[in-house]
Amino acid sequence: MSNIFGATSTTDEVLQGINLTGKRVLVTGVSAGLGVETARALAAHGAQVVGAARDLSKAQAATAQVRAQALSGGSLQLVQLDLASLDSVRRCADGLLEAGKPFDLIIANAGVMACPKSKTVDGFETQFGTNHLGHFVLVNRIASLLKAGSRLVNLSSAGHRYADVNLEDPNFEHSPYEEFIAYGRSKTANVLFAVEFDRRHKARGVRATAVHPGGIRTELSRHLAPEALQKLIAEINARQPKGAPSFSYKSIPQGAATSVWAACVAETEAIGGRYCEDCHVAEIASAPGIRAGVQPYALDPQHAQALWQKSEEMVGERFN
User: Fold this and answer.
1) Is 0.70 topped by the overall pTM?
2) What does the pLDDT look like over 207-218, one tens digit per residue?
3) Which CATH superfamily is domain 11-315 in?
4) Which residues pair with 208 in a beta bridge?
């Protein structure tokens, strides 16, 4: 696995010299930010991208650059997907299954962050329901379309270090709601889902991984007031080891780089069932702080199996 990429690498640098002609990719959340850039980079290298978004009008406008920069053979097709509604998720999955075209990659990019307490259409806490359960149902329903050699990339976050999943109270029915605790739970779930999906599918040549894109100014932080963002950055810096660099934002192409690196460049055996950041596989780091490394609980295989079973109970479906 190449070591030439890092925190400041961009999507174009990571994919330099790579031809994705003939590859078919599903990217969720292509109406803004990382999703648009991920789709652009892949299509610019020849991939046929299926972009999923809740608001198709917004996605159509946001992805003009994707179509404009698509290499010969590269393309973009939009499909409707509201991850906060399991009816919408199932309709999207049914449509993809009916089309019957296999995928080489699924990049589960869409998500929400630190929103006020609310519920999805199905009554789940919004962040857990959208970030984890929506993707859990979508990916499992279309898993048969993933051919040998394909990969699933779940977008997690260093925010997973805020909290482990709580399988006894996933909807905050018996504990006070905190925006970043809820976000942390959902992002830990993204990693654990990748761990268990990888275990279940690697024998047929399908692997899964989770990635942290870094801190980026996107619509994801729309629920945070400027003073709340400043406070968060101050807390991150205060909890860093002595001598560590201060927090700095990545550009959107830098933020999407780890997604495309894990999807197209990294060695399969290195990333399967793992958590990646800054275009490398992260070290396990249980010390306080949210800047680097992955908490052990996010990679625990028994924990991953327990989350899978709980998720099946919550959505009312079993996936073998």
Assistant:
1) yes
2) 999 999 998 875
3) NAD(P)-binding Rossmann-like Domain (3.40.50.720)
4) 152
